[in-house]
Design goal:
single chain; 623 residues; Ubiquitin-like (UB roll); 21-stranded antiparallel β-sheet; 8 helices; 14% helix; globular
């Protein structure tokens, strides 16, 4: 029985790889450059007809303007990039020049593009929305730049500034251009173009158990701050309130701060945090601080007296870490500027001011603890631009690099003798010519003390996506990823499961285990057709997962499956030009006797690649 299930798993694995690689392999044999070609079709007649009918009535005119913009030819701003274009810096000729001036242009959300500032096709409703929108202040944009006027041009600072602008939650796209109108001087003018996002984001959700109203502004008053407020109601638990205010990049320090709270019938929580990451390879210092105060309840049912008693819980969580990077060598090569040796220290503490005694809390789940960790690591990270990964031609920053981190420390609990901890993590990612992008990671960590078995965790995984290939006028990119997690001598309270985000919406319910293996296959195809103004990209997903439990070994366990198909859509004639829809099937989801089908189980289409950034020291995650 064991070998038969193993054989089935291997067959599915071979089929998956064959399905995703055969076409790609054939494409690689054809040595040709790929350019995105647009069919010369006039598909705007239908919009003109709809507009003609809609403008006969005031109501239908308003309805038309709420959905469509004025008809215009559909075209992509960018072609796919060759391997040379991915690594070539167009600003190389301006190296070491003096920055004479910096001009910042902030474009409204609707009707503009960072690649083409002349595009201003907007209808009256979009004009109203642009006037209502508070554009990002220029000082906010300037705060994210790593260069200043009268400095020498450093190419890494230019490329990193552009990437950091695109990374901001309130910016849709950004470009930085260097120009020299006078060839006789060694000075350059820099133009920074930022395309804003529409950042007011209200939402309402409802279900059989209650609902939630959320109001969020990701760029409050154009200052780059985020304000969010939620009001929830549950028929059994009553009302809940939660809110968050984020200060982004305080005074050009790249220090961000969060103020947050949560309040319900059973729990109240207040917190504040400050954080500065190694946001760029050029960063020398990083660190953070977190303080959370919680008031809650611990419910205890006395089976002898048949009485349910609520005990007060009052505790504080604090977490502080600092880190320093050192750039080895004095070489001016690109790799030298992108690599660093990083040392870090961390202290995390949980202290109870009120809690039940252990005669009531027999599981001893409420205990004081202190975590002391130190780490030493090596980081090499850089980025290259690519397109048509998950977006229709927009620039996407793909990280390459190497990260090695050693962690050592100890965990002290009031219910246990102090345990030492040691761990190691290694990850690497690179784009290979004519093959694609491949990254992998391995990590192992263990808590140990004399006389007891080690509590250990092992993780490994990989992520691959192919170069953009041409298959009968269809532009195809393929993805394969895998993850394996296992634990040794874990307490009964520590168990893992197959997460929904790992398996495209699969719901494991109460299913838990000690080890898991997941394989995912994705295909994204950009169609060469323009159907009534729509450019579309069909997507397909396959996920396979197995979970080892106390009673079954890994390859003797049930093979869980998830299948999804969908469409990424873009239409420049619509107010919201890009959107997606997916449909998922789950043949053997736990708790159901037959297949389960879901609408939109996959809602996040982003590049899931780590940045090879070293952050605060942490134990290897068992999740």
């Amino acid at each position: 029985m064991r070998f038969s299930k193993l054989l089935i798993f291997i067959k599915i694995l071979i089929f998956g790889f064959a399905f995703f690689y055969v076409d790609n392999a054939s494409a690689q044999k054809k040595k040709r450059s790929i350019t995105i070609k647009i069919e010369k079709q006039d598909t705007l007649d239908i919009y003109k007809k709809i507009q003609k009918v809609a403008f006969r009535r005031k109501f239908t005119k308003i309805l038309y303007q709420a959905v469509f913009i004025d008809p215009a030819p559909l075209k992509y701003d960018k072609k796919s990039l060759s391997d040379k274009q991915k690594t070539e810096d167009p600003n190389l000729k301006f190296k070491a020049s003096i920055i004479r001036s910096i001009e910042i242009i902030v474009l409204d959300p609707f009707g503009y593009s960072a690649n083409d500032t002349t595009r201003t096709i907007v209808n009256p409703l979009q004009k109203t929305a642009n006037k209502t929108h508070v554009t990002t202040s220029r000082w906010v944009v300037r705060n994210r730049l790593l260069f200043k006027k009268n400095e020498s041009v450093e190419l890494l600072k230019i490329s990193e500034s552009e990437r950091l602008l695109r990374q901001a939650r309130y910016i849709n796209d950004a470009r930085i251009f260097l120009t020299n109108s006078d060839d006789k001087t060694d000075s350059v003018d820099i133009l920074v173009i930022v395309h804003d996002k529409w950042t007011i984001d209200p939402s309402i959700s409802a279900g059989s158990s209650g609902g939630t109203i959320r109001l969020r502004d990701k760029n409050l008053l154009g200052m780059g701050h985020t304000f969010e407020q939620k009001i929830g109601y549950n028929f059994s638990a009553g009302y809940s309130l939660s809110g968050n205010y984020n200060f982004s990049n305080i005074n050009n320090t790249y220090v961000s701060s969060d103020l947050f709270y949560y309040n319900s019938k059973l729990t109240t929580e207040l917190g504040v945090s400050f954080d500065r990451s190694f946001y760029s390879p050029l960063t020398k210092y990083a660190g953070g601080m977190l303080i959370i105060k919680t008031w809650g309840t611990f419910n205890f049912y006395d089976s002898i007296k048949s009485v349910n008693t609520a005990y007060n819980l009052d505790f504080t969580n604090s977490d502080v870490w600092v880190a320093k990077s050192y750039r080895p060598g004095s070489s001016k090569s690109v790799n030298s500027k992108n690599r660093a040796i990083i040392g870090a220290l961390r202290f995390a503490d949980k202290r109870f001011q009120a809690r039940p005694n252990y005669s009531v809390d027999t599981a001893k789940s409420n205990f004081n603890s202190s975590l002391y960790l130190g780490s030493l690591g090596y980081s090499l990270r850089k980025y290259y631009k690519d397109q048509y990964i998950y977006r229709f031609g927009a620039n996407e920053d793909v990280p390459e690099g190497l990260m090695i981190q050693l962690v050592y420390g100890y965990l002290s609990k009031s219910t246990d003798i102090r345990r030492k901890y040691s761990g190691i993590e290694v990850s690497h990612g690179k784009h290979y010519k004519k093959i694609g992008y491949l990254s992998g990671n391995v990590s192992y960590g263990t808590f140990y003390k004399l006389g007891e078995k080690n509590n250990s965790t092992f993780n490994t995984g990989f992520y691959y996506f192919s170069d953009l290939s041409l298959e009968r006028k269809w532009y195809v990119r393929q993805f394969v990823s895998g993850k394996f997690t296992t634990g040794f001598n874990k307490p009964l309270a520590e168990r893992i499961t197959l997460k929904s985000k790992e398996m495209y919406g699969f719901n494991a319910g109460t299913l838990t285990g000690t080890s898991k293996l997941i394989l995912n296959f994705e295909t994204v195809t950009y169609a060469p057709y323009n159907i009534i103004g729509f450019k579309f990209a069909p997507v397909a997903f396959i996920s396979l997962g197995i979970l080892q439990t106390e009673t079954t070994k890994l390859f003797e366990s049930k093979l869980y499956q998830a299948y999804s198909v969908g469409l990424l859509l873009r239409n420049e004639s619509l107010l919201n030009s890009s959107f997606e829809i997916t449909f998922g099937a789950f043949p053997n989801q736990p708790g159901f006797d037959k297949a389960v089908y879901k609408l939109n189980p996959v809602t996040s289409f982003t590049l899931k690649v780590r940045s090879f950034e070293i952050s605060k020291p942490s134990p290897v995650g068992y999740e």
